[in-house]
Amino acid sequence: MESVWEYRALLLSGTLVTVQLAIGSLLLSVLLGLAGASAKLAKNPVSRRLANAYTTLVRGVPDLVLMMLLFYGGQQIFNDLGSVTGFWDYIEINQFTAGVGSIGFVFGAYMTETFRGAILAIPRGQIEAGISCGMTPLTIFRRITWPQMVRHALPSFTNNWLVLIKATALVSVIGLHDLVWNASTAGRSVREPFTFMFAVLVIYLVLTAFSDVGLRWLDRRYSAGVRQD
Q1: In this predicted model, what pLDDT tens digit does every residue of 21-79 receive, in sequence order?
Q2: What are phi and psi of 22, to 5 degrees?
Q3: Which residue blocks in the chain are alpha helix, DSSP H?
Q4: DSSP for 133-194, written as a single string
Q5: Is residue 6 one of the residues assigned to a domain?
Q6: Distance between CA 51 and CA 38 in Å, rounded?
Q7: 172 lies in a domain?
C-alpha cells in the first residue's frame, strides 16, 4: 500500500474528476428524465412515441456501446451538421463532455421511468383540486406535484444514482483521466495493478456510502408526516 500512498495525488485528482462527472451526468439525466416523463404523460401521441423510442433504445443497448457511439459518431455528426449549415466550425468534444453527455443520456431514460411512475402515484384528485382553486400549472407543479413526486421517486432515484456512480468507470475507455484511468496507469507503472484496483474499490465504496447516507436523509425529510404502512 506504500505505492498507493505515493500516488495519492493522482488518485485524488481522478476521484475529483469522477465526482464531477457523476454530478454533471446526474443533472443532465434529471433534466432528460423530467422531459421524458412529461412527454410520456402528454396527450400528444408523437411526443409519447418519441419518449418510448428513447427509453426502448437505451434499455436495449449496452451502456458502453452507446457511449462509444455518442463519443465518436456523435462528434462526427455534430461537426458535419455545422459544416453543412455553416453555423459553426469544427468543434472538438473533449472526453469529459462526452462522458457527461453519454452517461446523462443513458440514465435520462431510467429517470424518465422513475419520474413517470412517481407522477402517476400522485392522486389525480389533488391536481384537480389545485386547478379548481385557480392555481397555475407552475404553482401546481411546485406545491403539489414536485414534493410528492420526489417522495415516490426517491427509492428508484437512489438506485439510479448509485448505479450511475459505478457507470462513470466506463469513461476510462475513451481516455478521460478519471479514477479508474489514473489508478490503472499508476498500477501499471509500479506493476501492482491489483493493489490500485483494490484502492479504487474502496474509494467507490466510500462514495456510494456517503451518497446513501445523504439520500436516506432526503427520504426522511420528504416523508415527514407521512404514515408508513
Answers
A1: 999 999 999 999 999 999 998 889 999 999 999 999 888 888 888 888 877 777 778 77
A2: -65, -45
A3: 2-6, 8-41, 45-60, 63-68, 75-85, 95-120, 124-132, 137-140, 146-167, 179-190, 193-222
A4: TT--HHHHIIIIIHHHHHHHHHHHHHHHHHHHHHHGGGGGGGT---HHHHHHHHHHHHT-HH
A5: yes
A6: 9
A7: yes
For the record, the C-alpha cell of 182 comes out as: 489514473
Most confident of 21-25, 152-156, 185-189, 225-229: 21-25
Answer yes or no: is 162 within a domain.
yes
User: Does residue 227 sit within a domain?
Assistant: no
Q: 163-216, pLDDT tens digit by residue?
A: 999 999 988 888 888 999 999 999 988 888 899 999 999 999 999 999 988 888
Domain of 28 in residue numbering reads as: 2-222
Residue type at 209?
A
Give the CATH number of the domain where residue 201 resides: 1.10.3720.10
Contact call for residues 117 and 153 (beta carbons, < 8 A): yes
